[in-house]
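Hi,

I'm pasting everything inline rather than attaching a file, because the server keeps stripping attachments. The sequence lines come first, and each chain or strand is labelled.
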Amino acid sequence: DQQVKQNSPSLSVQEGRISILNCDYTNSMFDYFLWYKKYPAEGPTFLISISSIKDKNEDGRFTVFLNKSAKHLSLHIVPSQPGDSAVYFCAALDQTGANNLFFGTGTRLTVIP
Amino acid sequence: DADVTQTPRNRITKTGKRIMLECSQTKGHDRMYWYRQDPGLGLRLIYYSFDVKDINKGEISDGYSVSRQAQAKFSLSLESAIPNQTALYFCATTDRAGTGELFFGEGSRLTVL
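And the predicted assembly:
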């Protein structure tokens, strides 16, 4: 069972416009959420996170929004740049003893110059 | 040089063969992880280790074993490889317990024929 879901496998956006990547989760015990970015032939790199006590976290062009009641989070990139083209993974943290991360299936973002 | 190094980067092997994927890190982190990535499934946790004497099974440990030879080294073994173990394997480390912020290696692509 996929506890973290990214229903859009791909997204194309024009340079300078907003990119919105979505993520849904099923386990209400998740209380910390992260986005990772992955370029081809590289490992994922941490991008931004949010605690469940917040509904928004911003870091430069990147903002993550959390809607706990809907079990939904989103990543906004404004303005989008060609260098943002990558696969983005949503992840949720299980803060029991293992601190295990549960990853979504990823969304491939293409920013068109 | 990468902080988290995986070898080999690519490997093709045959069903029934024993294969070892190695991970070494220069970050001085105690926590190390092995994940596998499959198309449409995201990243799933195979094994993790919080220190040299600590080994724990993850979500999909069947068919795999690990060895934590030192703080800096964490190896993943497939005792008898099978085709459905064809995947991209990632090693990750962290010193940020409870945050989900992992530092990933570049990945090892394994093909089992």
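Chain B touches chain A at residues 4, 35, 40-45, 48, 56, 58-59, 90, 92, 97-107 (CB under 8 Å).

If the labels don't parse on your end, tell me and I'll reformat.
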